[in-house]
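## retry 2 of 3
previous attempt timed out at serialization; input unchanged, resubmitting
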Amino acid sequence: MFDIKSIEYENNGHVFIINISDSSEVLYKNISVKISNDLVFKYIENLYSIIDDWEEEYINLNIIDGGSWKLYINYSNGNKKVYSGKASYPSNFEAFERLNQKLIEVIYE
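## retry succeeded, writing output
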């Protein structure tokens, strides 16, 4: 599945992790739930359409106390892609947040 081992998203101290394997799982706020690989595949497809034109860093040095975030995509071969920001976000960041929220809702069903 795109040779991705895991996806980790940190936002202001909250961590959201998707571990991808034969038995994929989502971890959020100390809750772990197994999810179908179909759901993971759809998530990854949508994720790549959102982050396709993202820069690696979004930093606004004019704001001292702005929020920070990081997205790690860990590949099976050991490579890692990292996107991050401090007080700055890509223009379609809300679409990324909504995508994550949909998966988080699965945990609380």
